């Protein structure tokens, strides 16, 4: 008996792999989560919304757009929300790409990029990173053809950590045709401390082909509520809003996001604690002989190549994220758990 067949893309598309579970959340350094629990004010506001779970969410995301507009100094019609920045990306590519179109992106970078591109019916054009784990923007510009519809720039880059600099992005944008959409993915922007790092919002004025993606999952600690957003030209934001499924983002998530924006001073203290711990981990690893690229995120990258899977196994009970053949990404967790990871890394290296 014949069965319904999905599109042929599902014969080759990989499933997204979540971070490997651990015996407790504290030991799970395989997903880029915030190690701190929700702020009491945010938890209280989200809990209040539970009493209204019998009602549909605000499809217009009014409170979210108002708060972001004030916080970022952008117009509300420049915003489009979704289920995390990755949800917005999937919607964006589905809205702007079709069969025969190409999407240029760095590789290795965010694991969901090739999945989102394939599902949109487009063809991915991955461009290898440079030896220092940074974007090769010259090569990415060279890869643009008449078929290119979108270019993805991940800064800081996941899973390797480095940023694209302000000058690099400015030079790159001069080479991108005006009808090619440039997506600046800034999921980790709050952790950036390099003064010369590019900021997507700074390049938006005067450009009609650039959008910025951001999320509440990382620095704001709302990964479980799935909420992120796009900032860009009103014409593009309007298309993404139209293409987003109705009621995709819950009022609980919106309430928590707005409360987080109102508690930004408290959250910045937590971000500073993560950044400080990140620097300590990088210093310890480099002192131990490890090759660690610059990281402006809440994780560190070890370019272990073919040793990635073996190293990850030796880190147990700490769970880290291995990318077979490339390296291992380790999220900054609680100091005691980070110390256990560093001990495991030292033992593995000493045994080589």
TrEMBL record:
N6-(pyridoxal phosphate)lysine PTM positions: 218
Domain called Aminotransferase class I/classII large: residue spans: 27-314
NCBIfam families from the UniProt entry: PRK03321.1 (NF002878)
Molecular function per GO: aromatic-amino-acid transaminase activity; histidinol-phosphate transaminase activity; pyridoxal phosphate binding
PROSITE patterns: AA_TRANSFER_CLASS_2 (PS00599)
HAMAP family noted in UniProt: HisC_aminotrans_2 (MF_01023), Phe_aminotrans_2 (MF_01513)
EC number from the UniProt entry: 2.6.1.57
Self-association and partners: Homodimer.
Catalytic reaction equation(s): an aromatic L-alpha-amino acid + 2-oxoglutarate = an aromatic oxo-acid + L-glutamate
Function: Aminotransferase that catalyzes the conversion of aromatic amino acids and 2-oxoglutarate into corresponding aromatic oxo acids and L-glutamate.
CDD domains membership: AAT_like
GTP-binding among keywords: no
Protein name, as recorded: Aromatic amino acid aminotransferase
Keywords: Aminotransferase, Pyridoxal phosphate, Transferase
Known cofactor(s): pyridoxal 5'-phosphate
GO biological process terms, semicolon-separated: L-histidine biosynthetic process
Similarity comment: Belongs to the class-II pyridoxal-phosphate-dependent aminotransferase family.
Keyword Transferase applies: yes
């Amino acid at each position: 008996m014949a069965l319904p067949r999905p599109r042929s893309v599902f014969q080759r598309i990989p499933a997204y792999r979540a971070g490997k579970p651990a015996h407790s959340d504290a030991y799970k350094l395989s997903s880029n989560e915030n190690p701190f629990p929700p702020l009491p004010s945010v938890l209280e506001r989200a809990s209040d919304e539970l009493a209204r779970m019998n009602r549909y969410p605000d499809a217009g995301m009014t409170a979210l757009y108002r708060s972001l507009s004030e916080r970022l100094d952008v117009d509300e019609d420049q915003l489009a929300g979704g289920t995390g920045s990755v949800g917005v990306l999937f919607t964006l590519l589905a809205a702007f790409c079709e069969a025969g179109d190409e999407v240029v992106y760095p590789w290795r970078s965010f694991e969901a990029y090739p999945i989102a591109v394939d599902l949109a019916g487009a063809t991915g054009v991955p461009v290898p990173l440079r030896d220092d784990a940074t974007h090769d923007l010259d090569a990415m510009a060279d890869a643009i053809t008449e078929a290119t519809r979108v270019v993805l720039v991940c800064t800081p880059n996941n899973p390797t950590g480095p940023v694209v600099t302000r000058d690099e992005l400015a030079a790159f944008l001069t080479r991108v045709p005006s009808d090619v959409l440039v997506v600046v993915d800034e999921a980790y922007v709050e952790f950036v401390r390099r003064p010369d790092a590019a900021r997507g919002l700074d390049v938006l004025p005067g450009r009609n082909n650039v959008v910025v993606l951001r999320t509440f999952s990382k620095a704001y600690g709302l990964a479980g509520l799935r909420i992120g957003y796009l900032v860009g030209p009103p014409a593009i934001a309007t298309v993404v809003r139209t293409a987003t499924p109705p009621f995709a983002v819950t009022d609980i998530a919106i309430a928590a996001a707005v409360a987080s924006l109102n508690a930004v001073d408290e959250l910045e203290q937590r971000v500073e604690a993560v950044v400080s711990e990140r620097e300590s981990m990088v210093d310890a690893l480099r002192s131990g002989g490890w090759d660690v690229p610059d990281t402006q995120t809440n994780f560190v990258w070890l370019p272990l190549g073919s040793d990635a899977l073996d190293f990850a196994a030796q880190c147990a009970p700490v769970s880290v994220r291995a990318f077979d053949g490339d390296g291992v990404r380790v999220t900054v967790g609680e100091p005691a758990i980070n110390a256990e990871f560093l001990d495991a890394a030292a033992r593995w290296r000493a045994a080589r």
